[in-house]
Amino acid sequence: MLRWWRQFGLGRDFPRVWGKPRGEPFQPRALGRALTRAAWADGRPWSNPGPSNQGPAGARRPAPHTGALLATLPEETRRAIALRLQQERSGLRAHDYEWAAGTVLCEMRLGWRPEEVHQLFASALEDLDPIRPAATSWVTAERSLELPLAAYAQLDPAEREPFQPYLRTLLAARLGCRADFATEDGRPTPEQAAFAERLRALVSTPFDPDPLLPWSEATPGDGPAPGDVPTPEGDLFARAARCGLGARLYEEPTLRLLELCASSTELRPSYQWLGRAKELFQLTPDARRPLRLLLAAGRGEPTDCRPAGRSHQGQLGERSGQLLATLAWAAVVTEDTKALQQLSRALDHHGRASLDELRPPASHFVRAGMAALAALAGESGAGQHRRLLASSSPTAARLAREELAAVRDLPAGADLKALRVPVGPYTALFEIGAKGTVELRFRNSGGRLLSGVPSQVRERYPARYAALRARLTELRAQLVTCRGALVERLHADPGTPAARWRAAFLDDPALARLGCALVWRIDGQSGPVLGRPFRRKGAQHWMLRDLAGQVHELTDDTLVRLWAPGPDEAEQAAAWRAALTALGLEQPVPQL
Predict the structure, then answer these.
(1) Three-state SS for 532?
(2) Which residues pair with 441 in a beta bridge?
(3) Could you give the CA distance from residue 9 to residue 34 in angstroms, rounded to a whole number?
C-alpha cells in the first residue's frame, strides 16, 4: 500500500482523478508533476487520499508545500491550473484528488477576468438543467464549486451581475427536492446548511421570497424503510412551488408576482389590488408562466422530483393558503387559459379530494378561488370585482363557468335531485314554497332548524356550500319554468301521456311539491276521473287518488290533463278546495 501511495503521489500527472480524466494532463508536464509531489508531501500526515477523504473537512487541511510552489508562479499560470482542475469538477461532482491545490488557489488573489469566471461556472454546471437541475449529490458538490465561488468573490462588484443566473441555478439545486445529502436521515450536515446560506446571500433580489415559500429540510420521522428516502416535512405548496419554479423563483417576473400577492391576505382582494394585478401582467407578460407553475404547485405538481413526488405531500400552511388565494385572483385578472385550468385543478384537489373538513388554509384558498371564478363568469354578487373583471373575451368567461361548475360538483354518489344534502355535522335543506319559491336552510345534528348558514359550513366546506348555492339557483329557475308551464296548461291542456307527465312534474322532488298540490284529470272507463298524484311508500309508480280515496292506475300512454273547473263544476271545486285546505296544501297556480 505504501508503494502504491508513493507512486500515486510522485509519479502521476496533474490533476489526479478517479476514473477517466476529462482532459489532457496539465502542461508543462513537469509543473503538473511538481504539483502532485507537493500535494503528496502535504498529505503525508494524513490517511491515504481517496474519494472518501475529499470534502469540506479535507479542504481545511493545511497545504504548505503546495502553497509555496504556487506562490512562485505568475497569476496567469495559477489561473490556468485552476481552469484545468475545474474540468474535473463538472456537473457539481468533483472527480479529482487535488484537495491541496484547490484549497490554496481559493485563498490566493489570481486576478480573474470575467470570461474566465464564466468558464469556471460553465464547467461546474455542465450537463445540468439551468432552471430545474437534476438530482444532485452534495457529497462533493461543494468542493466542485469552491473555485468558481472564490473567483466570483474576487471580481469587482460591477462585474458580478452577469453571474446571477449561475447562482440561481446553484440555489435551485441546493434547495430543490432532488438534493441528496448522503446522510442517514436525509438532513444536510451543518456545513452543508451553512453552504446553502452562503449561496442565498450571493443571490441578489429586490424582494425576498423565502418567507413566503419557506424551506424545511428532510426529517427522519419514524425512520425510512430500507432503501427508502425520508419524506421531507413542510408545506405542500411551498415545497412544490420551489421544485416547479426552480431557478425562476429568483427571477424578476416571479419576484414581482410574489411581491404583489404578498400584499393581500383577504378572501376578496381590494379593487386597488386587482388594478395593480392587471397593470403587472400588462407590463410584465412573462409573469404568466410563474403564475401557472405556482397554481400547479397548489396540488403538489410537479411530481417528477425525487422521491417520486412524495416530497410534495402534506398540508397547506396558513401563509400558503393566503398566497394561493391571491394567485387565484391573479389568474382571473390575466384570463390566461392555462392558468385558469391549473386553478380549477388545484381547487378540485383541495375541495373534493376528501369528504373530511378542510383545514382553514385550504378552505381559504377554495373559497377565494371559487369567488374569483364566479366574478369572471359574471355571476351575481361579485360586485366591484365583476365590474373590474368585465371581460371582452367570452372564451375566458365561458371557461370560468365550466371550471366553476366542475369544482362545485357534489361528491360522487350524491343524489343531484335530493332536497336534503349532508354537510359535515349539518344537513342542508331545500325548502320548496307553494308558489314555487325555494330557500336553502340548515339543520344541526340535533335536528334544530337554523336561521342562517353556519360559519363552519362556509369556512370548512366551501366546495360543498358552493355546490348547494349553485343548485339553489338551478332550482329557482327550474321552478319558475315549471310554474309558467302549469299556468299555460290551466288555460289549455291538450293532455300528456302519463310517462312524460310523471317525468315533467313528479319524478323530480322539487317539482313534485307543485304537482301534488294540483288536481289532474284522466278519462276513465266510466267517465272522467279527478285526482291528486299519489305514490305508495317505497314505490316509484305514480297514480291518482280521488276524493273518495280510491286509487286509479295509469298506463304510460294514459293522457293526463290539468283540471280547469268549469261553471258547472263549482261543487267539485269546493270539495277539492276543502280537501287541500285540510291537508295544509296551497296551490302554485289559482286552479280552484
Answers:
(1) strand
(2) 429
(3) 10
pTM above 0.90, yes or no: no
More confident site: 423 or 312: 423
Residue for grid cell 500527472 = 13
- DSSP annotation of 545: E
Peptide bond into 302 cis (omega under 30): yes
Confidence of residue 44 (pLDDT cuts 50, 70, 90): confident
421: phi > 0 → left, psi -120 to 50 → alpha, else beta; which? beta
Residue 321 phi, psi (nearest 5): -60, -40
Q: Which residues have a Cβ under 8 Å from the Cβ of 542 and sit 6 or more positions away?
A: 498, 502, 506, 533, 534, 535, 554
How high is the pLDDT of residue 67?
Answer: 93
Per the prediction, the chain carries an average pLDDT of 83
Q: Look at residues 330, 336, 396 and name the one whose alpha carbon lies nearest to residue 369.
A: 330
Closest CA to 325 of 411, 251, 264, 248: 264
**Contact in structure between 170 and 122 (CB atoms under 8 Å):** no
- Is residue 105 within 8 A of residue 63, CB to CB? The reply is no
CA dist 272 and 383 (Å) reads 14
Alpha-carbon distance 206 to 214, whole Å? 17
Report the SS3 class of residue 566: coil
- Three-class DSSP category at 160: coil
The beta strands (E) that lie in 444-490 are given as 449-450
Query: For position 277, what pLDDT does the model report?
Result: 94
For cell 344541526, the residue is 444
Does the pLDDT value for residue 395 go beyond 60?
yes
Confidence of residue 414 (pLDDT cuts 50, 70, 90): low
Residue with cell 316509484: 540
| 3 state SS of 427 | strand
- What is the model's pLDDT at position 316? 84
Distance separating alpha carbons of residues 497 and 273, to the nearest angstrom: 58
pLDDT of 29 over the 90 cut: yes
CA distances from 425 to 397, 416, 461 (A): 35, 20, 11
Instruction: With residue 528 as reference, give the H or E element that holds it.
Output: strand 527-534
**DSSP annotation string for 338-396:** HHHHHHHHHHHHHHHS-SSPPPHHHHHHHHHHHHHHHHHHT-TT-THHHHHT--S-HHH
What is the Cα gyration radius of the chain?
37
**pLDDT, tens only, 161-182:** 999 999 999 988 888 776 666 6
What lies within 8 Å, CB to CB, of 304 at 6+ separation is none
Look up cell 429568483; give the residue.
Answer: 250
**How far, in Å, are 73, 75, 201 from residue 109 at the CA level?**
12, 8, 22
Instruction: Tell me what pLDDT residue 218 has.
Output: 42
The pLDDT assigned to 299 comes to: 87
Contact by Cβ (8 Å): 448, 480: no
